[in-house]
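Question: Now follow the chain.
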Amino acid sequence: MGLPNNNPGNGTSDGSNASAASSGLQAVEGAVGYVNKTVLSSQVTGMTGTSQTLADQAAAMMIQDVRAFMQGNEQLITAGMGKAISYVVDPATTKKGEDMIKALSTAMKDLTTFAGEVAKAASGVLQDFQNDK
């Protein structure tokens, strides 16, 4: 299924010139095609038609939640780094500032690991759902 292309010379978004179509447009086309094929199909019974959509939504919500969590922590870490730097420049509290920077660096690494684990879990939701079909 392709969307009309009003820009001649760039091919169409139905795959005849895949290099011209953006990956975002291709994702949207895939989603529209999925909805048209399964959710709007007259042969869908019960939750069968919407269950894939619900699994996709659950995975997307996991990613959005971790994104918001990371942004909140980014603000805390930024404020903490500012305080740590103020300690580092004062000879009386340099060691305290250095320790804070190390702790904040560890926190940033742990947040990155946490976000990666959430991404794996979100991917697992989709894989588990597809395997159960």
